[in-house]
Amino acid sequence: MDVARFNQSLKAKAPPADLTAPLEALWWEAKGNWNKAHEIAQAHEGEMACDWVHAYLHRVEGDLGNAGYWYRRAKQPQATGALKSERETLVASFLGPVSR
Question: How confident is the model at residue 1 (pLDDT cuts 50, 70, 90)?
Answer without folding.
Answer: confident
